[in-house]
Amino acid sequence: MNLHSLFCPRSIAIVGASDTLFKWGAYIMSNILDGGFTGKVYPVSVSKSIVFGRETYKSVRDIEDKVDLVFITTPARTVMAVLEDCRDSGVTNVVMVTSGFSETGEDGSRMEKEVERFAIENGMYIVGPNTMGIVNTHCSLYATGSIVRPVPGGISIVAQSGNLGNQIMEWAEQEKIGIAKFVGSGNEGVLKVEDYLEYFMDDEDTSVVLMYIEGIDDGKRFMDVASRVTAKKPVIALKAGRTQSGSQAAQSHTGAMSGSHVIFESVMKQTGIVIARTPSELLSLSAAFDSFPVPADNRVGIITLGGGWGVVTADECEERDLSIPPLPDDVMEKLDKRLPPFWSKANPVDLVGQPDIVLFEESIEYMAASDSFDAIITLGMVGSKQFALRAAEAAMNLGNLSKAEYQKFKDNLDQYQMDFLDKIILITEKYGKPILPVSLAKTDYDEMVHQLKGSKYKLVIYGSPEEAVLCLQKMYHYSRYLAKRRN
Amino acid sequence: MREIIMTAVERKQAALSEYESKRVVESAGVVVSGNRLATSRDEAVQMAATSGYPVALKGCSPALTHKTEMGMVKLKLKTPEGVAEAYDEITSKGVGLDGVIVQEWVEGDNREFVIGMTRDPQFGPCVMFGLGGIFTEALKDVSFRVAPLTEIDAMEMIDEIRTQKLLGEFRGSSPVDRKKLAEAIVGIGNLSSEYDEIAEIDINPLVIEKGNPVAVDALVILKK
Asked: Which of A218, A311, A320, A387 has its CA 20 to 30 A from that of B220?
């Protein structure tokens, strides 16, 4: 099943196009036009002759050019006629935004069956019905009902709830986490979550698949597709309905302990899907997998600006299947030459409150270069500028520092931090190991994802040790899953 | 095995008897404790002599679900007289039996596990492994995988339970042979994929004898 022309159309028609604000036909149309889609856009309307300054067509049949994708936003009772127009015009891809199908009851289910039959008979790919729409950032196609425009990147999303998908894209937009494609799968009358998953497997723009799942129709096919996709790229999923207890009457003890969610989680483990427990975790994990390499094994080196934080992080690691091996002799020697005599002499390496960028960079590189570690967590260098800034601010408030001097000081500190993060990306590249910086003080204007031009890796700056450790744990589990199946 | 299952289906049994259940899971690769069915007192005594003392006797019928509560289980019998007496007692309860199971006494080391199977409406047969014995449902330290499953899957199920320490060397007992455990789990998965007639399976307890898993009780429930 190739959904390429659905996600990368050269021409689009919108049936039910409108410029009456707060109508779906207006949301979709204005989002597509304003979002910068470079292909052709044809509004189709029986009631309006001009929409957003463009002349409309009465029917899809009237459009002379080839149309790659049709959005349908007109009421449910009209869709079969529109589908027939589409078929007659050679259209094979449809996004059916229209609601009023199986989600409303028996009549709706019957209509949805009719749509499905029609699609199968005529070889049509239909998203929805009752979908939020689709996005492909790499061709500036933003075609969802709510306007969210994350930057282009490697994460592709399939969500069985359009709202939740939108919320995740909104966070991604705010945090500049790159998104490749989005689809709200809606009622899945024709195309199912497995179809999108399978398409993302070979999609070159997709490096990570993010899924929000409420239920699936074909368990065996889902497992088959999922295990093939995870062998190629990570899939992160949130399955809703954790607390729903199994409703089937069981006669055995085994049956009494199963239940749909327990089984679904087992399926995710069996097929190598990374399990997220909340929507924010879903995005955070996807960003990690999209940004830096997975660890080969579970041995973590910790470098910290202060002792307490190192201990807390080490505890988190131990409780999450990660190990904190002792410092090997060669690293010990190298660090000993650079650090004051009272340094920790152990992993976690405590740099005893010295926010010295060069010292941090060197220590990180010694650790990353060592065969004893598979991943590095570094705490406190990033964000420490905040405290220097506050001291400068106090001095400025007291008249000891001019506003210009303060600004210059601030600009310098910001630049140092950027340079430091660039350096960490270079070390990540050089050794192919994940390095996770945790910020001492993350502010609203600080970026979450740091990029360096020309590098295939990015850094995610974590707000807390526990978030960094959680991401590392899930990456280790994925890496272990793959390693066991490669041998 | 096909014969046991098909006969039971034809007879509209809700479940297989313990004797039948054990034969079926044994065919799937699960080691079961000595499983012989006596239909007379003399036969029971003879079987006990063959297997060696001590033995356990259990009333056997597909309709029997609460054997212990009904006084149908006699444990650790050490003499022919004891066996004869137990046989008479079990058969005098007025319950129709297929016979009486004569089972060699397995000296487990207090560690008890469970292997089970249930069918999920979405994914089909799912195999369970975990902590067995009487606390199984209270502690719920179990893991599931969809059948058929690979040995790697089974190993990961074993690694997943919280009470990992019980699988290692424990209070002087040797570590559990994980490979044998995995083979049993894979076997139950294959059995369930092959026989649609089986609805659910409980192998509980699965005791550990010198590091090896041995099923001392099994229940195979058939589809309605």
From this structure: A218
